Amino acid sequence: MLGLLRARILILAVVAVAVVAAGVWYFVIRDDAPEPVSLETAVSSVQQQTATPTPTAAPAASTPDPTPTATQAPASTPAATPTATPTPTEEPAAAWPDDPTGEWVISSEGETFVGYRVNEELANVGAFTAVGRTRGVTGSLAFDGAAITSVEIEADLTRLSSGDSRRDRALGSQGLETNTYPTATFSLTQPIALDAVPAEGDALAVDAVGELTIHGVTREVTIPLEGQRAGGYVVVVGSIEIVFADYGMETPSAFIVVSIEDFGIMEFQLVFEPA
User: What's the whole-model pTM score?
Assistant: First the structure.
């Protein structure tokens, strides 16, 4: 009888360990989570993708030396004039327009994304930062001389990816509830006045005042931005704290989660080009 009881306890212990392991797998604990957004990293992503590779010259074809034969010397013929091999030309990099006035749109160059960072406490694991990002971003900004007069951004939250499909699916019915509220948007409501059109490579910091809509709730926010010209592109990064309750969101839950902070960080990296 005692042996049977011990066997049952052992089985329960194994099941408990398996459940905990499954929970850890649910959140896919990794040590390679993306770093917070930075202007330096964003500009580098543009420079890497727009760099034109340097063409390499093809090696000259070699021919074997002919074996001499005793024959009558042929009549001399004029030597052929060698033709120069055309040098491949590099595709010019995108150039900054003389006047940036007009509409700029999200570019396919560089890496544009919108995402979140949320701190959690996981059972048997400890502190962990969940990071999810979506590259499903569309939008535009408008220059009027040295002022930014319009910014419209929309992010497809159904494409959020954290490296764990289980977490991503859970957000469909918890937290962001992306099954019901598939997009988040931002619309600038006050022009951003710049002292002058920034020079190439000069970073600037400004505040963007506008309406942010998440989970079907719209609130006025002020988002600190950093921006820089990079070739013919405008690169912008920023982040803002989002309190879940402010947008009608409940804190997500799971059996392995001991606690989750009641707020997260929304972060973004945007690359624009002339429309």
Answer: 0.74
